[in-house]
Structure formats: C-alpha cells, structure tokens
Amino acid sequence: RVPESWVSPVGLPGWISGSARDRPPAPRPGVRPDRQFGNLGASNNWVVSGNRTTTGKPLLCNDPHLTLMAPSIWLAVSIKTARGGEIVRLNPTLPDSAADLPVAQVGATFVGLPGVVIGRNSRIAWGVTNTGADVQDLYVMQAPANGSSAAEFYAFEGSNVAYERRTETFKVAGSADVSITVRRSRFGPVVTDNGLFSDLQPAEGQSGAHADMSLRWISLERNVNDTTLAAF
C-alpha cells in the first residue's frame, strides 16, 4: 500500500499512485489493452550491492518496457554446450582457450540471434535497456542531370550515380510469392519505393512524384565491425 500523500504523476491514473487504490481500474471502451493506462514506457535497470542483501550476493533488476506484441519480440532461450566454441569466440576479450570451456546460459533473446541478450549463467547476470540515440538519417535524393531517369540514377557531387538494385522475394502462406525491387544509394536503401510514404510532396526536379529518400542507419552500414554480441 502506498501513502495517501502520493500525488498522481502527470499522465498516470490515480489508482497507480494510490488515490484510488481500493477500487480496480475500469477499462476504457475501444482502447487497446496496452494503452488503457497511458504511456507507461520507461525501461530501467538497477543493481543492489551484496552489502545490502541477506545473502551477501548482489541483485540485478532489468526491465525493458515494451508494448504488447504478437508475436512477442522476446524469445525464452537456454544455451548449453560442452564447449563454448564460436559462441565464446564472439567475445574478443576472452582467450582462445575459453572456447574449450562449457557454456550454460538462460534468458531472453531475439528470434535468430545466436546469444542471450538478457539473462544469466552460473556466475553472473546481465541486462540491457535501450535509450534515445541518433543512429538514423534520411537523405533526400537529388534528381539526376541531363534528363537521366530518376528511377535509375541520382545526383551526387555533380555526377549521376546509378542505384544498386536487388530483388527480394517473400513467401506467402497459401498464396503466390511476392517480389519487390529494392534500390540502394550510397547512403542506404530507398525507403520511399513500393508504395511507402506515397503522400509525400514532389521534390524539386521530380514533378509528379514524391521525394525519393534513402535511409542511413548504423545497423545497415557496410564494413562496420559490430561487436554488440561480444557484450553477452
């Protein structure tokens, strides 16, 4: 039970702060379950020293707040191997001999990721939270000169540069495959193709068409030595 003197924070219903703690909240008609009580997203993690626990061992709490999703972004996973092998080699801080040691980890991960993002082994526990970071930029592509096709070229530093192209095919259950063509500039993939952002206004030199924009994102950068997995 919380003190009556608590004042409900802005954006939070009274039952959370205690002013209406004796009655359950009434669902709001037509509002998604994860939106019933406002925006409660605020990832956090903290640790308590073993000097303040009854066992003498530290306590770690990790709470990455995410809205309800189906399927869930998280997947419960357990990794147990007689030898660490490549799992251990992902961490450049460990000696090569560590690859011969057993690995036993449990926790949560993302589908397809070969590791435990949040979890523990027999000796330690670890957690992560996300924060606001500037890792994306959108580039408005400039129309090519000399009447060249804007679908094939873009202007960069006074020259016409050809887009890279690739075909991506999606398997659809009970239906035919769907294929799309993805263009890529030196900055990244063109995200305004295939019907996306169709309500954008035409760019200068692109009469009758919306502005072509490329997404530069650190996760799509080529030749980047991403050592994220080494942390786990």
Automatic annotation (TrEMBL):
Compositional bias of kind Basic and acidic residues: 20-35
InterPro entries xref list: Ntn_hydrolases_N (IPR029055), S45 (IPR002692)
GO terms, molecular function: hydrolase activity
Pfam families: Penicil_amidase (PF01804)
Chain intervals for the UniProt region annotation (Disordered): 17-38
Gene3D superfamilies, per the entry: Glutamine Phosphoribosylpyrophosphate, subunit 1, domain 1 (3.60.20.10)
The organism's place on the tree of life at top rank: Eukaryota
Any one GO biological process: antibiotic biosynthetic process
Name of this protein: Penicillin acylase family protein
Species per Swiss-Prot/TrEMBL record: Cafeteria roenbergensis (Marine flagellate)
The organism's taxonomic lineage, starting at the top: Eukaryota, Sar, Stramenopiles, Bigyra, Opalozoa
